[in-house]
Design goal:
The chain is mainly alpha-helical and 178 residues long. It contains six helices and five strands. It folds into two domains: 30 residues, no CATH class; 120 residues, no CATH class. It is elongated, with a radius of gyration of 20 Å. The N and C termini lie far apart (45 Å).
Amino acid sequence: MHTYMLEEMSDSIAEHCGTNRDDILRVLSEYWKDKIAHIWQVDDVIDVAVRTGKPITAQAANDVLQNIYDHIDCEYGITWTTIEVALEDYDFELRRLSPGDRPNVYGIFNVRREDESGGVRFGSEDNDLGNLPDAVALAEKLARENPDKVIVIESVSDCRLCRRGRRNCRGVSDANAK
């Protein structure tokens, strides 16, 4: 078990139970000294989703992670590819998302008229949470100004988001909303 994970566990237990963090860390370290565990977190699912151009909320990422866990093949374990494949089955539906939930969406977005290339980008490598409301606002403005044009909000992947040295960046996602 990684030290930082033991520290995170110790902090959480100490906060919730009102006990000494150092005592908890010592007990957990002793317990894990002759064991290993490969831990996957919601942040891992979010990283892969954003990297591959799939908008996602933390709750949806947790659901994807739980689905992976529920269907894991112990012969093969969980890999980055497992997460990528699980995300292929995940479908982000902008129209079903309430306006109040839009700030909770991780992703990088591009807004443009369908008949144009380029567009306006919302989000970056360092800013992948909370970009959807601004993208939707611009899309709505463009739709009012250009009622005869189709306005597209695209989810965009960015190779620089490969925070863990991942591979296979795919450009613009097909998870578009018109």
